[in-house]
Amino acid sequence: MDLREIGHEIRRSRRARGLTQAQLAASAHLTRTTVNQLENGLVADLGIRKVQALLEQVGLTLSVDQALEPQGADFLRLASTAASVSFKRALTERELLRSLLTGNIAPGRRPHLRALLEESSPSLLKGLVAQVSRWSKPGKVETNLSKIAAALDLPTSADKWSMSGSLTKGDLTLLLRHDS
Hints:
Elements: H1 3-16, H2 21-27, H3 32-39, H4 48-57, H5 75-84, H6 93-102, H7 110-119, H8 122-132, H9 140-151, H10 169-179
Helix pairs in contact: 1-3, 2-3, 5-7, 5-8, 6-9, 8-10
């Protein structure tokens, strides 16, 4: 839950109790402007004591729970790092993402993408495709990778990154962890 969601819950509970923003603000020793901005998702940061004061006034509590599953691998970050290990200037995640979504290679990034496609494991490439495909049409990232491979005069062995090909047990484990 982020601060915007907390603000929404405070508004919901304040209204259910029949309180105005001014009444809530006064009882929590804050300004009405602060309450208004929090409820409208305009506050980027607010101290925990202020949030707790507001929550107490509307009968809510804040609790911290341990996550059930650890976050899965960030394949975009892993792939940009893997593509950059032999180079002075790193391929950024943004540059890699743009290339995967458009099929175009950023200037000066041909060697990075060549290293990524030649040296990365199928598990990394399949995980990368699965992650980035969430932001595009089905099959688009795979098509763009084939286009990039062709532009780099590499074999377009899509089975190395294709999600339609068979997944190994290791691929499946990485993808399932990533989806959690």
